[in-house]
Amino acid sequence: MTRNSVTSTKEGLVKDFRTRELLDAACRVVARHGFQGVTVDRVAEEAKIAKGTVYLYFRTKEELLKAAVEQGMANFVNQIRSEVEEVKAPLEKLCRLVEASLELSDSNRDFFKTLLLERNFLAAAPSHPEAAQMLDLYLGYINFIASVIKDGIAAGAFRVHDAEASAFALNEAMRGCFQQRALGLTTRSAADDASILLDLLFRGILSPHHKEQLS
Description:
By secondary structure, the protein is an all-alpha fold. The protein has a domain at 61-205: Tetracycline Repressor, domain 2, CATH 1.10.357.10. The protein is 77% helix and 0% strand. The protein is built from ten helices and no strands. It has helices at residues 3-33, 40-47, 51-57, 61-85, 90-107, 109-117, 129-154, 163-182, 190-203, 208-214. The protein starts with a helix and ends with a helix.
């Protein structure tokens, strides 16, 4: 390896580190002030760097904000995958997916609360470049949920049904549970909500008597 290549490698590592540092700082600013309250000054102060340094990595505040939201979502999805991939049995796998999703949302509550309440980052049409990456991340998460459900169907643990539609519905149910806690409307923990949601998912809302009437 030549001296120039070593220098180039070091510069690349520094750039990657600084970029991650700025994105993490931007996520914290989003959580604290909301999207409208994000400024380059606040991000620079949070990252403990000069304001001008931010512009070496991101041309505009909007570019920085978009990248920060994408990183926050990507980290969330990757953590969910790592939590679930080691579980083999379909039933336990879906249970762990719900539990991990709610737990991780809670561990980054301020950030995800902001995403729920301020959805300007998805205001563009799905084909718009500003929304395309976020949509890809979201659909990747939905497809992962659907794959867990499909595995359960193939194993005979779940009845045959539209796995993709169920994945969208389950995701919205988890989002509703998190939103209730994030807005301070309940004192239930993420674990409590996971138990309630899983009970509803597996047993339904009907009493045994009324289930017989449907059959």
